[in-house]
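During the no-cost extension, the postdoctoral fellow (Dr. R.K.) reprocessed legacy sequence entries with the updated structure-token encoder. One reprocessed record is reproduced below for audit purposes.
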Amino acid sequence: MIGKKLAGRYELQAKIGQGGMAHVYRGLDLILNRTVSVKVLKEHMTEDPDFVRRFRREAQSAARLCHANIVNIYDVGQDGNIYYIIMEYVPGKDLKHYIRDRGPLPAVEAVDIACQIGEALAEAHAAGVIHRDIKPQNIVFSNGGQVKVTDFGIAFAVDGATVTRGKDLFGSVHYLPPELARGSPAGEESDLYSLGIVLYEMVTGRVPFTGESPISVAMKHIQQEIPSPRALVDTIPEPLERIILKAVQKNPVRRYPGAAEFLEDLRLFKREGISRAVPVEEDDQQETILIEMPEEVNRNGEDGRGKRKIPWLLIMIIFLSLSLLTGFLLLRSYLVSPEVTVPDIIEENLSEAGAALEELGLRYVVTWATHDQVPSGFVIGVEPRPGRTVRKERVIELTVSEGPDYMDTPDLYLYREMEARVILRELSLTPVIIREHHETVEEGKIFEQVPSAGFPITAGEEVKIYISSGSRPFPIEQLTGKPRDEALEYLKEKGLETGSIRYLPSDYPEGTVTAQYPEAGTNVRPGQAVDLVISGDN
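Re-encoded structure tokens follow.
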């Protein structure tokens, strides 16, 4: 794809990333002469109309948004069977890498970043757009340090539409709101939960929940209380902890009602070091059961004939009866649930594998992993394994290849050959040496490389490095007979050094060059010294 021109306008220059459904390239808008990001739908997904519709919907939703903290969408189109979105190019690192490099961030810095994310969400929510995948990987920094939210890849307009494919959930499970983990629709409060988790990670350096599988992490978001941030980092201000814990309440109605209220509390903390968030009591796990008492029982526990009754015993009998009935119905539904066999879908593409599972009444979640042999988008792991008997509605965990484990090609510009060889050998890359003349780069230094710096590459691949042999030699002109100043100007223009100058009496007019070394016609290079003999007595 590198070098390809989409719609004759957008030239793909280097691959800079990929997600679950698209590759991302750095490109050049040839008409406006500006660098852009180009998101290209993965080839195997273009066969699926649902994915294509979602890809277009992403552009339509995000293109409506115009805000300093949101990555702009410039264009969307199709070139043959290639579907693409043209976006603002943001060259800085993402928040995930920033946290990994820095560790826990100071409270003031973390809140400042959260405020900028909140500004972006407030703008999107006002336009009826839910991001639905807020995570540090989707938060990037411009060269000026401004925060920008990117990848509205699974965003949708609040019109009742859903963007789940089959019955799997998209989005990173470490930031997944409980309601999405249960399969419920996303709302504004879902984005605020994810932002709360991002803020938690910024100030603690870690996510609240980890697990051996996406399912186990999702279940923790549903069932377990978020660990106290201050228990991990005791320097976190208590008011900030209250803000975080309010944002990540299990029950959406207990969170901030909107991004504006979340922002207001964050700004108050920045300004005065306090917050309006108050400790929230844990949800009562038992539903309230309303039981009507018989009309003949009065408030004193007596019926119309004046005999004492025991109403609480009656309540207990009714409650136990209902509990037993509910338990029986649940057990019955489990025992009679039909069983199916997990199909062998290893090395099938994700679309076909998902369709096969859905046809059997199975749900699935997807985890992406690198693989050196299996192309991107094809299944490399299934749990429970194929051939196992499971009940319908069981969630099957699919591991899907995202292709080889890429690394960024190192920047070797102006390195010397031996230095470049050492760098490439440590990365298990093979150098291919090419020597060429170069007019400006010093002899022995690298002036070009293929692939270019930052291009994704895998171990074992070749890297061509072009090493300067110095400037191309050229024949020096005849300087004898030229005036001294004219000869010196020529040497300067050609990048030649002025060597020794001697003055000797001759038949030439005074100040004229009578001899030169090297002689006329001899090949010389810039930087080489030229000696002159000048007519005269000086």
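Residues 407-468 form a domain with the Trypsin Inhibitor V; Chain A fold (CATH 3.30.10.20). Residues 155-171, 282-304, 306-310 have pLDDT under 50 and may be disordered. The remaining legacy entries will be reprocessed before the final report is submitted.
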